[in-house]
Amino acid sequence: MSKNEYKFYVDWHGDLLNNSSFESIFKEKISECQKTQGGVVKILEVGSGEGQSTLWFIQNTNKYSEVYCVDTHSEEGWYSNENLKVVANRDADKTVYEVFEENILNRHPERVVYFRDATNNVIPKFSTHFDIIYIDGDHSSKGIIQDSIYCFDKLKEDGLIIYDDYNLESVKRSVDFFYSAYEDHITNFKTEDRIASLRKRVWSNE
Prior knowledge:
By secondary structure, this protein is of the alpha/beta class. The chain has 8 helices and 7 strands, in the order ααβαβααβαβαβαββ. It has helices at about 15, 20-35, 50-60, 80-85, 95-105, 120, 140-155, 170-180; strands spanning about 40-45, 65-70, 110-115, 130-135, 155-165, 185-190, 195-200. A 7-stranded mixed β-sheet has the order 3-2-1-4-5-7-6, with helices on both faces. The longest helix is centred in the first third of the chain and has 18 residues, at about 20-35. The N and C termini lie far apart (about 55 Å).
């Protein structure tokens, strides 16, 4: 692998990152941040995998923006090489964490704040708030609802949350449940194909 080449063993996000709706929603928020805070954006990514989406966020924001990444990167369970070989035809001699480390941590240390831990151990302790939060972590109903609550608390007013895999029943059911519970605090709830997005209501404008 040349020093300029990024290596991803599974193309989890290729179709998402080339999705015009995803790009439009994301870049609309970036444009707003450009007007109000010089384009400096704080992004929280829940579930980073090999770093494909992380890299996209880095490449589509300015050099002063930061991406906070939270992922257990466990070598057991879902991320085990044995499981991924079955569910994603992943054939690699490196763990998912090692690939993320090579792609992201070693190349962009100034742009990434990384936490190798479960979301419930990390996100509630954050003192910072985020402009954009991307949720693609635990896909269980409990995990999605829990992550939604933690993340919403750390989202700035008018901040954007994007969910991946809304086309999966467990994700759709859980996101819809969260929306129904928090509807008074949410604006611009949108769904299309595999993504759902929402904004946090700005109460000071009402």
